[in-house]
Amino acid sequence: MTDTVRRLGSAEAVLSEAEASRFIGEALAAEDLTGKSVLLLIPDGTRTAPMPMIVSAVRAAVDRLTVMVALGTHQPMDPPALAKLVGTDEIEVLNHDWADPGTFVSLGVISAEEVSAISGRRLAREVDVRVNRAVVEHDVVLIAGPVFPHEVVGFSGGNKYLFPGVAGQEIIDLSHWLGALISSYEIIGTPGVTPVRALIDRAASLVPTRRLCLAMVVQSGTKELHTLSYGTPEAAWADASAVSAQVHVKYLDRAYPRVLSMVPPMYQDIWTAAKGMYKLEPVVADGGELVLYAPHVKEFSESHGDLLAEIGYHTRDYFTGQWDRFGGYPGGILAHSTHLRGGGSWDASTGEHARISVVLATGIPREVVEQHNLGYLDPATIDPEDWGRDPDTLVVPKAGEVLHRLKT
Which of 21, 185, 257, 271 has its CA 20 to 30 A from that of 406? Predict the structure, then answer.
């Protein structure tokens, strides 16, 4: 593999569909893919991207193609949703079947010593690197997904479509808990290779299959493309993340006592809608309040709801300070919990002290929300236009993809 990157587009403009399709066709034509089986890994519906165009262009350039949605542990998509995602029902699109142990094959183990070095001595445990067996059963893995600021790894995309996209639970839990120990507040939108990115890339180095990547930077609020970067997952991601840092980070002059995060319908549960918190936490003033406004959301997580009900939502220090009580829970569950609850502290004598209040204005009943240690507000009482007239309230439509930060 080489680190040569081909890029089309810029942060200042958007590409036409014809330009993007031609670029993809030419990039793949330059590879020796004749007769080779290609596994195309794509995002689910919780990521904004022009997937029908991408899939169509790849399909035209590849003889033997398998399309798989890199779900991580998101809910499987039904056939109509899959057809909408790729723009046709004429090709088979597979869900990554993360709930079936038979899905996976082990690529090897990363030692505790190496995990310790990669994590900056935050964690020291070995991890079995398991991945969907389709990855090793194809000649080429082609990752095609957008790059955005991300609460666990810094910027999404690249090898993240392998780990956690089609990965076993062990590496998912380890990488997400490492991100939580660093904290979403600190890691989100961090340029370069973060410790979590280094762990993911190390896991990807165990994949014996040739890996290629189309990393895209999508215009905020649309499915138009600013850029397409093509190369190895490491190089294409690095190129695209530099563009994402220009177009997906909004800098504000001050923090706000109250932020209304308006969550779009593509996030169907709190597990995914929590991105409306991650991207806005840095601009909520100390002691302030962030309201997740999502009347369409009816549950915390179909996949992980029982465990979330057991532990609730708490700051990182609440868990680390009581590790004998919480250490047996999956790291991915604990990470989601503390990412949504935000920064704060805990000690045995005075208890938990969160930096901000997190309030749900959703379709989840008050008693359930409060049992999860979050605030409740009836969404019917919220008029976003009225809230927007308050100079101490920031209202953010379509929250979840653009990171908001203070200029300082």
Answer: 271
Which residues make Cβ contacts (< 8 Å) with residue 198, sequence separation at least 6?
Answer: 118
Residue 75 in tokens: 């809910």
Q: Which helix (H) or strand (E) holds 229?
A: strand 225-231
Q: Tokens at residue 47, please?
A: 């990521």
Interacting residues of 81 by C-beta distance below 8 A, sequence separation 6+: 45
Write down the residue that tokens 């309201």 correspond to.
Answer: 291
The separation between CA 309 and the C-alpha centre of its own chain, rounded to angstroms, equals 22
What is the rounded distance in angstroms from the CA atom of residue 117 to the CA atom of residue 123? 9
Distance from C-alpha of 403 to C-alpha of 401, rounded to nearest angstrom: 6
What does the block give as tokens for 131?
A: 């991945």
pLDDT digits (tens, 9 = 90+) for 237-251: 999 999 999 999 999
Instruction: Kindly report whether the global pTM for this prediction surpasses the value 0.90.
Output: yes
* Among the listed residues 39, 43, 51, the one whose alpha carbon sits nearest the alpha carbon of residue 71: 43
Residue tagged 């380890």 (tokens)? 174
| DSSP three-state, residue 268 | coil
